[in-house]
Amino acid sequence: MEIQEIKQQLTLAEVLRHYGLKPDKSLRLHCPFHDDKTPSLQVYYKTHTCYCFSSNCNTHGKSLDVIDFVMHKENCSKAEAIEKCKEMLNVVKSRPVSGITGNTPQAGSNGQFNRIQFLTNLFTYFKNAIHNSKPAQDYAKQRGLDYMQIEVGYNSGQFHHGTRKDEKLIADCLQAGILLPYSRKSRTGEQAYQPFAKYCLAFALRNRASQVTGLYFRSTVNDQESRHFYLKDRCGLYPKYPEPTTEKLILTESIIDAASLLQIKTITDQYSILAAYGTNGLNEEIKTAVSELQHLKEIVFAFDNDEAGITAAKKYAAQLKETLPNVVYTTLQLPCKDVNETFVAHEPEIFIHLLEGRTDVFLSTVKPVEPVKESPVERKKEPIQEPVKPIQQDIEPEQDKNELDTRNPFKLTYKTETATYHIKGGVSKALDNLKVTLEIINENLNESINKRRFKVDLYDHKQTEKLVQEASELLQLRKDLLEADIYKLTDLLDEYREREMMQSGNNESKPEDIIIPLTARERSELESFAKKPKLIKRLNEILGNTGIVGEERNRIFLLCIAISHIQKDTLHALIQGSSGSGKTRLLSQVCDCMPKEKTRKYTRVSDKVLYNFPQNYFCNTVVFFEDIDGLSEEAEYAVRQLQSDGELSSASSIKLDNGQITAGEKIVKGPIASISCTTKGEIYEDNISRVFLIAVDESREKIKQVIEYQNKKAAGATDTRKEQEAKKFIQNFVRILQPYEIVNPYAQKIFLPDDAHKLMRLNEMFQHFVKIITLLNQYQRKRDERGRLITEKEDIRTAVEIMFETIVLKVDELDGSLRQFFEKLKSYLQKTYNGNHQKAEFAQRDIRHALGVSKAQIHRYLNALQQMEYIQQTGGYANKGFKFKIIYWDNYTALRERIRKHLDEQLQHLD
Q1: pTM, whole model, 2 decimals?
Q2: Which residues contact 78 (CB under 8 A, 6 or more apart)?
Q3: Which of 48, 290, 319, 589 could form a disulfide with 12 if both were Cys (CB 3.0 to 4.6 A apart)?
Q4: Which domains does the chain have, with CATH numbers?
Q5: Cα dihedral sign for 483, 489, 495, 498?
Q6: Does 810 or 71 have the greater pLDDT score?
Q7: In this structure, what DSSP letter does residue 696 have?
Q8: Could you tell me which of 536, 553, 592 has the C-alpha nearest to residue 778?
């Protein structure tokens, strides 16, 4: 093998991995060739070279290739370094490291297209590309994939651009299917091409000789429609053909599942891993490869934990059993949807336990067998809960000797005349063993040597004998007395575990309500406040004292929505505004004014986490989502269900106290009130119909008020103690409010504008909001013979006044921030062009500077206005900027006046 071939086939990343070296985020290393306190060796993955910038290094001034690096690292001759590089290459695989060019050896000896050689070059290029792509690295990290440990690449779609481009490369890419011709020409008049599987992670499929014969791609940007891509004429297996000596084989449903398991050495040491290509993707090539394994004893199916995955595992197990009748077929009972999700959510060691507990594939079922309301594991996650109570409720502070002290369930104590025994971490709930971490203390010895710790299964006679022998020698204890203590301790732990399991089965899943007691004086002051006229106005003024400035109407609106959590019919709000407009700050300030025991605030919500809370965890609470844009479709659906139905229900696999895995039903109950933030209110069609859309005030006046407040606070001119007192007052005010059934005798006399979007749901929300205003005034309202609060005219007027902007937004087809921008744009053109504004053309840059809008924001605004046919593009160029003009000058002021008049006329005619 020539030196040039080695340099082409051996990547610098592989050399560094061989020596256990991993560059930092800046691709720098502590130089291994001299004493280096700060990283001075720069790695260049594109050229597969490195350079040390330290003058103390004997390589300083030299750019080291892979052979040079090995030579200096091994302190050997160049000839020896070349032989070492050949060993690293594993010779069988050919992995050139140069870019994909027409000059690289991608064609056969006759100059014709060589698919294997081409795909080998291509995959090497992709592997190098992931080192230079932060988005690809972030996505890989999100999926738990270490690109320094496993073979994975990234397709940025740039492999045919720039200096790499030539006719031979284009022809080979088209033949392999990695490029697809566009129907249109490029800007230069040449044929345009579309890269296949752009912005995807790349994985190699290999043949029997471990050569790259196919590529699988997983999208990093589109999880909704197009996720998986395979090159045409797919062949090969991932990660490779199983070794002929394989005895145990794990079959996963997807390639990313297999890649996850490849990172767990304890699994790869005992099992071969092979990926199917989906629930319908166990093709003939895979079946043939498996059937040829002469020493195969077991196939473990690690398919998704859903009906499709379990059904597919049974189907393929039955098919393989026809050719491999002596093989055992088992399946993993995954706690999450699939292997990768489990790998990300748990420590890797969980797969060791899952493999130990694998079951016969033909006994698996997704139908509920013994529905269980809640898993014991989930009950441990309740954050609002007293410390776990001991089983023996009447234990005195000083417990008698020779009895098990259970006051701390995670450190059980047993004292005898012989020694003191601590069970660290509690006991296992699986009834077929009694595995414990046991600490034995001989208090008669010196403190430095008086204790020893053991991991032991007390049901295992051999382990117990060994424990007694070792502990008696190490701690100088009589063996017979120690043995008697251990047997007595085993009996006590047995009894304790049985009592605990019986009691946990009788415990309700509802977290205990935290009651904040109010003094008589506090309650008297609050009730006096609640009985005085103009309650809502006074409450809004106190909100202003908490530090919420510039949002006088929105802040009281949001507080009323949050307070609705105490009722059966709750309300929800979506705060919409551009980035940096203060929407998250407004949400946090309102959250601070609510009782802590009734608030749940989240920055991020994973796909299925809402289904896993205790049954009554969200019951009559207000939930704050700081950025609903970050929620996945699955999480959004769960939120919508809680908002609309007040309940989530799901069927899933659960683990019982005795260790058995079965199917059960999980229910999470509401109702909840909710407040969320978004920058993209216009695209949340399913969400908007359920919520009040509240637009953040983005005017210059509001910005000045906030800046003035910030400056005062920084200068110490704001009394933060008074702000905290105001927040505490509102929290206590909410605590004295009681839920009531409310009747509105005027409900049939107020009608919202007919052109409002989703009018039926908006009208229902309006009626609920009127009831919340009545609820706030409960100390001033009369009750009927059934004890129901009666709404008064003033409640309706207050509700209309507070809701007016939201009603306008429901009629206006532009969302809040877009409407504010459009009105500013119209005002700017009217002032600038003095009567000729309707024909005026404007450039994006001019508007950006004039209105102080960021480039990203104005790009979104102009695109939205174009799509809704408010403006149109009139000219310009992509490199110099486009020209636009307004083609629909709507009268927003007239719209507001029409809605105001419509509502005022109805309010005047209330009896």
Answers
A1: 0.46
A2: 67, 71
A3: 48
A4: 3-89 (3.90.580.10), 237-366 (3.40.1360.10), 404-505 (no CATH), 520-739 (3.40.50.300), 816-896 (1.10.10.10)
A5: negative
A6: 71
A7: P
A8: 536
50 is written with which tokens?
Answer: 């490195």
Residue 861: strand, helix, or coil: helix
Q: CB count, 10 Å around CB of 795?
A: 26
Which amino acid appears at position 531 of this protein? K
pLDDT digits (tens, 9 = 90+) for 324-337: 999 999 999 898 88
Element (H, E) at 699: none
Is 50 exceeded by the pLDDT of residue 747?
Answer: yes
CA distance 200 to 220: 5
Question: Lowest-pLDDT range, 46-60, 489-503, 767-781?
Answer: 489-503
Extract the tokens encoding 530. 């609640």
- Choose among 825, 819, 870: nearest CA to 843: 825
Token pair, residue 186, equals 């490029």
Q: Helix axis angle, 552-563 relative to 535-545, nearest 10°? A: 110
Angle between helix 520-531 and 720-736 (nearest 10): 80
* Nearest-angstrom CA–CA distance, 350 and 342: 8
- Pairing of the two strands 572-576 and 672-678: parallel
Q: Mean pLDDT, the chain, as a whole number?
A: 83
Gyration radius of the chain over CA positions: 35
840 pLDDT exceeds 70? yes
Residue with tokens 């149109």, as numbered in its chain: 872
Say if CB 282 and CB 316 are below 8 A apart: yes
Strand partners, 214: 205
Amino acid at 630: G
Residue 242 CA: distances (Å) to CA of 145, 289, 301, 565: 21, 8, 15, 57
Task: For residue range 134-169, list pLDDT tens digits in order.
Answer: 888 989 999 999 988 899 999 988 776 654 567 788
Which pair of tokens denotes residue 543?
């909100």
Contact 765, 571 (CB under 8 A): yes
Write out the DSSP string of 538-569.
HHHHHHHHTT--S-HHHHHHHHHHHHGGGSSS
pLDDT category, 366, cuts 50, 70, 90?
Answer: very low
Measured distance CA(428)–CA(457) in Å, rounded: 10
Q: Quick check: 623 and 640 in contact, CB under 8 A?
A: no
As given in the structure block, the two tokens for residue 834 are: 């003095």
Tokens 């106005």 belong to residue: 537
Which token pair is 181? 């011709």
